Amino acid sequence: MIHAIVIAFALLVGTPALAQPLIIAHRGASGERPEHTRAAYELAVEQGADVIEPDLVLTKDGVFVDRHENEISGTTDVGDRPEFTDRKMTKTIDGVPTTGWFTEDFTLVELKTLRARERLPAFRPGSAAYDRREPILTFDEVVAIARAASTRTGRTIAVAPELKHPTYFAGIGLPMEDAFVAELERLGLTGADAPVIIQCFEVGPLERLAARIDAPLAQLVAGAGGPADRPDMTYAQMITPAGLQAMAAYAAWVAPEMTLVLPRDAEGRTTAPSALVTDAHTAGLKVVVWTLRAENAFLPAERRRGEGLAEHGDMAGYAAAFAEAEVDAIFSDFPALARAGL
């Protein structure tokens, strides 16, 4: 037990890389239970996850709630609630017109009446069987789940909150950063050794957080485009050696989309690793890749098994390939399969 705790904290606070990557449960064990629910998080811990991930958006009354996006029609039953029909609308989120129901138009009390549902039911009918059982969680409820699991298992279960669309929320009068720092302070998660990794696709919020707290920060990097708050910057520029050196001034981690580490060829097969992990480690950054999923639709061609896109392929082997590439952590919807590959 003590060894597991030491490993978890060592990887979080920036000591030299260890042989086995951390397993971060992407929205919980979201391949088997509706994402961001207590059931998904608790199953993830049972399956050996080191870290559980809540995505954070804000309510109308300024509470951090755990949803992948502020638009919630795909992950809750809001579209079936006649009392909320008139709140359906179209908004532009980070330049993308989006139609649906948005957390910022609901109070926490109203959101708590909704129930979670599986986002990918065609791929995950087993998870969809758990639809409409669980409410939306707040950030402090997710932290409480992690702390209870730490006590129960004797392992340190960390949290990896992601701030979603902070520039958008600031633009509608719901700035995230002050409220988030206050929440971290209240929860005791601001220190360098805190069991937390704070993520964001934007740059400015992480830079400002770095000046206010000592907790580890992770810069998310997509395979295309660039940060919503830096229109003159691309993610490709950010993962050059010079870009990674600049990133290390405010972040402890770089979090690239998985094919930036193990690229794929025109036939969808994995090629040799890129230089990203080596360059990041040279800059003093740890590397966490996202997101490993078991279904053939999300795997490289050589890892697929069977004919159907929803059938499961060799995700454990894919996780092993990332471990060989010396990444420090892996996001996965299937923590047990990720663990099996290490």
Describe the structure.
30% of the residues lie in helices and 15% in strands. With 342 residues, the chain is α/β, with parallel strands linked by helices. The strands form 3 sheets. The chain has an 8-stranded parallel β-sheet. Strands 4-3-8 form a 3-stranded mixed β-sheet, with helices on one face. A two-stranded antiparallel ribbon has the order 5-6. Strand 11, helix 11 (276-282) and strand 12 form a beta-alpha-beta unit. Residues 1-9 and 13-17 have low confidence and may be disordered.
- Order of SSEs: HEHEEEEEHHHEEHHEHEHHEHEHEH
- Stretches with pLDDT under 50, minimum 5 residues: 1-9, 13-17
Overall pLDDT confidence: 95
Instruction: State the end-to-end distance.
Output: 19 Å
- Strand percentage lies at 5-15%
Give the helix level as a range of percent.
25-40%
- Helix/strand structural class: alpha/beta
Multimerization status: single chain
Q: What's the β-strand tally?
A: 13
* Biggest sheet, spatial arrangement of strands: 7-2-1-13-12-11-10-9
Radius of gyration from CA coordinates: 19 Å
Shape: globular
Biggest sheet record: 8 strands, parallel
Number of helices: 13
